Amino acid sequence: MPELDNPVLHAIRERRSVRRYTEEPVSADEVRAMLEAARWAPSGKNNQPWRFLAIMGGDARQQALAELTRSGSAVQAAKALIVVALDKSAMYHQIKDHQSCGAAMQNILLAAHSLGLGAVWLGEIVSRERQVFEALSLDPDAYELAAVAAIGRPSRQGSGQRKPLADLLIEPL
Amino acid sequence: MPELDNPVLHAIRERRSVRRYTEEPVSADEVRAMLEAARWAPSGKNNQPWRFLAIMGGDARQQALAELTRSGSAVQAAKALIVVALDKSAMYHQIKDHQSCGAAMQNILLAAHSLGLGAVWLGEIVSRERQVFEALSLDPDAYELAAVAAIGRPSRQGSGQRKPLADLLIEPL
């Protein structure tokens, strides 16, 4: 049996949510590399409904966002934030468009990991969409908030675990 | 400036939806490798709401699914199908749980690509959830259909394109 492993499977398996970061900055080129990865995600009808707002460390909007989530310490410590929003004029199906944003976010997280960065997908902040959009001067008639990623250089690796595959299979394989 | 490239970014950029497959089978070990990738996706509260049903080529359920989608030719030609469903008892937020399934699906698609396979994410079939669940003997009170992946060895590569990054940025980076 051939060994079913390669750098992509390895990255997928090793990536974890990282919420603690060093003081070292994240560069605009690194953020662009993550967004380049995001844009190659698949979407229904290839509608690419995602829009991105990158906030570099130290931007005044970082502190405003930190105050809107229980993950404030990760947002404050992050050296870059990526806000993923749906362009309402590009959407065709709310659930499927959010699924696509999940695929784009996974590309961002894998890209971060592959670059030696650490990131965490913040979902709880989405419940404060109105306040987030006010803090970012985003038009709620134009966008729907999907998620936010906080990114930095890991000062502590994540340690999240997963259920065994057998528990996830509807029938044995 | 360091070159911001690596095998993970390369795979993310090169992966496309593949709808045409050779007659060569996909092995159960390859499907397990894709599902191993899926289970490492992130989810809100780490609730891991995804459940998977793998259908190997030739299974009678393959033809039943083919008749339920406009992508019937891809489903018929596929050498494996992965049905991604949400376990209703594990869900905590419909939109976020579907986002997580999007991340898990992206892991499946990237894993397939990394193994030399080709895959396509089928979303249209979700509108026929009732008939899909009947064909698969799945309890609609227990599961919510998220997506289906069709997988095989590419006989023709996909060629989907994407908007330039500049068109996706809410403000310049």
Q: Keyphrases for this structure?
A:
homodimer; 173 residues; alpha+beta; NADH Oxidase; 4-stranded antiparallel sheet; two-stranded antiparallel ribbon; 6 helices
Overview of the molecule:
The structure is a homodimer of 173-residue chains. By secondary structure, the first copy, chain A, is an alpha+beta fold. The first copy, chain A, has one domain (16-156): NADH Oxidase. Chain A has helices spanning 7-14, 28-39, 60-66, 72-77, 94-114, 129-136, and strands at 20-21, 50-56, 80-87, 118-122, 143-152, 154-156. The longest helix of chain A is centred in the middle third of the chain and has 21 residues, at 94-114. The mean pLDDT of chain A is 97. Chains A and B meet through helix 1, helix 2, strand 2, helix 5 and strand 5 of A and helix 1, helix 2, strand 2, helix 5 and strand 5 of B.
Oligomer: homodimer
The CATH superfamily of chain A is known as NADH Oxidase
Strand order of the largest sheet of chain A: 2-3-5-4
List the helices and strands of chain A in order: HEHEHHEHEHEE
Number of strands of chain A: 6
Residue runs with pLDDT of under 50 for 5 or more positions of chain A? none
Biggest interface, chains and residues, is: A-B, 72 and 71 residues
What name does the CATH topology of chain A carry? NADH Oxidase
User: Based on helices, strands and strand pairing, what is the structural class of chain A?
Assistant: alpha+beta
* Number of continuous helical runs of chain A: 6
Query: What is the CATH-assigned architecture of chain A?
Result: 3-Layer(aba) Sandwich
Distance between the termini of chain A: 17 Å
Average pLDDT figure of chain A: 97
Shape of chain A: globular
The radius of gyration of chain A is 17 Å
Q: Any idea how many domains of chain A? A: 1
CATH class of chain A reads Alpha Beta
